[in-house]
């Protein structure tokens, strides 16, 4: 007797629920569509899900779907299994070498686009989601993205090529390989303190690159480097904008003020948590 897509997803949902997955039905269906696309060798849109759930599954689909469900039951993130994550207006390739772009980070993009800039630097760019999203909106701007991970840079280069954005990429320990000045510097650095790591969901703690998550210290190491180096790499009136953890707003704001930045502002995300801090280099400062 043929197995329908609904039966296959129901069995997968039970496995994922037993593994402690919060939204087992949704994950089972997302992975079903991904497996179906591979089986049929063509993209299957979300709106076609109902039709395919009612139909018998194609030959070979179960063999494709099974390892995906096994990986998700092992708490591998869906984005790593499918290899993609939607962010801002584009889909980005995601691998275990990169941080999974979060919806919260879109606030950083949104706020950056309220500013005028002809040049932008992304420090610790990962998938390139922030930099590429900004350059796609401002095609006249030049951009540079740096990361300590060469593997992450390869992912970002690929995403830029697919989306049609041109940028410069370099391996760099924050500003170490950066010699120019920029109108805008953005970063979503590792901000999770070492004592917070055990509390993270397994999808984050066990599957995403550790150096993109934590400084193995108080969570502020990256901000100290970013704030100290930003004035020398910003044009007059240029801005530094960073994503932060929800308890770090005042500490990061004080680091910016100590570095000589002015108009320092903390903005909250949709859940009311501190999420982005930015400051401006004074127009009269020549550093």
Automatic annotation (TrEMBL):
GO molecular function, one term: peptide chain release factor N(5)-glutamine methyltransferase activity
CDD domains listed in its UniProt record: AdoMet_MTases (cd02440)
Residues binding S-adenosyl-L-methionine: 124-128, 147, 174, 188
Domain Release factor glutamine methyltransferase N-terminal, chain residue ranges per copy: 7-83
Catalyzed reactions per annotation: L-glutaminyl-[peptide chain release factor] + S-adenosyl-L-methionine = N(5)-methyl-L-glutaminyl-[peptide chain release factor] + S-adenosyl-L-homocysteine + H(+)
EC annotation from Swiss-Prot or TrEMBL: 2.1.1.297
First-tier enzyme category under EC: transferase
PROSITE patterns referenced in this protein's UniProt entry, alphabetically: N6_MTASE (PS00092)
GO terms of biological process kind: methylation
Binding residues for substrate: 188-191
Record's keyword terms, sorted: Methyltransferase, S-adenosyl-L-methionine, Transferase
Methyltransferase small domain ranges (all copies): 105-193
A Pfam family the protein falls into: PrmC_N
Family: Belongs to the protein N5-glutamine methyltransferase family. PrmC subfamily.
Function: Methylates the class 1 translation termination release factors RF1/PrfA and RF2/PrfB on the glutamine residue of the universally conserved GGQ motif.
PANTHER family tied to this protein: HEMK METHYLTRANSFERASE, MTRF1L RELEASE FACTOR GLUTAMINE METHYLTRANSFERASE
Protein name: Release factor glutamine methyltransferase
Organism: Paracoccus aurantius
């Amino acid at each position: 007797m043929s197995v329908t897509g609904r039966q296959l997803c129901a069995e997968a949902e039970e496995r994922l629920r037993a593994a402690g997955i919060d939204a087992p039905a949704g994950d089972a269906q997302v992975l079903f569509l991904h497996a179906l696309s591979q089986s049929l060798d063509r993209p299957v849109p979300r709106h076609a899900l109902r039709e395919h759930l009612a139909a018998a599954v194609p030959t070979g689909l179960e063999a494709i779907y099974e390892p995906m469900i096994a990986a998700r039951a092992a708490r591998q993130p869906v984005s790593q299994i499918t290899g993609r994550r939607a962010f801002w207006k584009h889909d980005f390739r995601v691998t275990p070498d990169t941080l999974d772009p979060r919806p919260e980070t879109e606030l950083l993009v949104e706020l950056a686009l309220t500013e005028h800039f002809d040049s932008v630097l992304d420090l610790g760019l990962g998938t390139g989601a922030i930099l590429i999203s900004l350059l796609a909106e401002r095609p006249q701007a030049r951009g540079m993205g740096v990361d300590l991970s060469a593997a992450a840079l390869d992912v970002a280069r690929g995403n830029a090529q697919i989306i049609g954005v041109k940028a410069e990429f370099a391996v760099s320990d924050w500003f170490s390989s950066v010699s120019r000045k920029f109108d805008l510097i953005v970063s979503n650095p590792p901000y999770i303190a070492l004592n917070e790591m055990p509390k993270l969901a397994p999808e984050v703690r066990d599957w995403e690159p550790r150096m993109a998550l934590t400084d193995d210290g108080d969570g502020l190491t990256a901000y100290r480097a970013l704030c100290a180096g930003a004035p020398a790499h910003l044009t007059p009136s240029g801005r530094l904008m960073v994503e932060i953890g929800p308890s770090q707003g005042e500490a990061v704001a004080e680091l910016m003020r100590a570095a000589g930045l002015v108009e320092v502002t903390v903005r909250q995300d949709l859940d009311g948590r501190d999420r982005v801090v930015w400051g401006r280099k004074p127009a009269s400062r020549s550093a």
